[in-house]
Amino acid sequence: MTTARTVLTIAALTLREATRRRVLLALAVLTVVLLVLSAWGFDRLAAQGLTSGEARLTASVLLNLVMFGLSLIAALGTAFLAGPTLSGETESGIALAVLARPIRRSAFLLGKWLGLVVFGGGFVVLAGLAECLVVRVTVDYWPPEPAEALALLAAQTIVLLTLTVLLSTAISPMASGVVAVGLFCTTWVAGVVGGVGASLGNEAVGRVGSVSRVLLPTDGLWRGAMHAFQDPGALGEFGGGAEAGAFPFLSQAGLTPAYLAWAVVWVAMVWALAAVAFARRDL
Amino acid sequence: MTAGRPTAGGSTAGGAAGGAAVQEAARLVTDLPPGPAVWCSGLRKRYGNRPAVADVSLEVARGEVVGLLGPNGAGKTSVIKMLLGLVRPDAGEVLLLGRPAADPAARARVGYLPELFRYQPWLSPLEVLTLHVRLSGAQVTAAEQQECLALVGLADRAGDRLGGFSKGMQQRLGLAVALVARPELVVLDEPTSALDPLGRVDVRDIVLALRSRGVAVLLNSHLIGEVERVCDRVVVLDRGRVAAAGTLEELLGQHEVRLHLTGLPAGAEQRLAAAGRVEREGDWFTVALPAEDTGTAVPDLVGDLVALGVRVHAVEPVRISLEERLLGILRAGRDGDR
Question: Is this complex scored with an ipTM above 0.95?
Fold first, then answer.
């Protein structure tokens, strides 16, 4: 009961911090800019008189591209919020008075994590839904599995912020944000390289993507989200087969339950590691 | 310094040994005096190769105000952080208000003002207090929180964001945070470092008010005069060890007398030396009297000197300040190492 109260209090505090430090405002402005630009772009494309197949392919690719932009904004936002809120507070001394209260450090960490999950996850779900509506209005396209796609986008954000939480228990706030975003981008690039390798039939290069998706599940979840956003016939329009795998904004297959389970285990393991590191840290 | 582990609460007997015996045991446990506010034994801490705390044992009784003194790097803040679970000791045991400090619940009635006082700059003072009340689990009304802010002089800034607060105002807020959740033990680490003289007087009054309410206080301060005015006992740390500890009377017990003497015959200096350590500056003699003196040493000495034919022009008591005593303890410790 006491632990639950602590977790909820710290989670609410983290959300309030995000709001008061204008992180929410900054994200909202960036998102609106992205939505307006994409609405203009989709509207121009619709005016070109594409065939229905071309329209579905274009909508799928561009939707995935804009969603990638949104997930990048969420990644940057949560990574640079998670660093200051945890290691920044221990560095500045804010955490001293709070952690001298009758609370467990793991409960404090869970509260911070939960607040970031609600913030980051909430952002991508709302912004992603808004983008889906923009596409619906402009080119009359609606993703086949919007709920699954948005949930996977939120899961990708959760994976990245959990990594940032772990990093921020050990290194400085700025470094933890930089390293987390760097790893996020590296994994995405590794995924694209792996796709190119697979399309060329090079098994060794193809394995780069598979290995990186296991080490850091952000790219795997992103590919699952893309698959749920894109039209089932889009890959066929693109040329079908292995060649389409080289294209970074279309996904060849959805996620397997085993991979989803691995992502859950990965988050639990990394969070537990962060909790152990934070509990042992001298303040 | 501290011998056995103090009693404080405890487990009750179980099994079918008879209800009366169990009740009797429970009554005995209930009747035990509460454990001290702070008890620690054999605390040690190293940061890398550097020992910060070598062996510290200390105790703060309920309702007692204990001052923690010592030079920079003596380990005072490290000891405080180990007591509060903020730093993991390499060795040693800590009990807070009768409970093992490893259990966070031991800190439920503990207030703390850190040396490095920083509070969430995006919150207002009232919001910071509400946060700490919620985390402590105490039932404190909004009116009481306002009173707490008024006590530290922040009543008219209760709703302003902390971002624009001066260091002194943040330290005042830190004091309110330490006091807000009805503490039974308050740990103040350099509570006046950013305060003006008026603020220092306020802190002194607050500590005295806490003592009068039976709240124990552990006060780490470089301002020796402050410690001397409010503390019942003093613990002096030097290089991670307890160099001295005791009540102010015990620590300042040694007193001196200055005498202006002329016409000293043979034997007068031996008589002076017999009374205690003597320092001479011309015709002035300063004699350190024994701590166990019951008040007869000075009249006996003066009587004997007059009987020997010494002309006694003046006899002045010399009061040793805590500062002089502290410096004496620290210098003696360093001389002992050579």
Answer: no
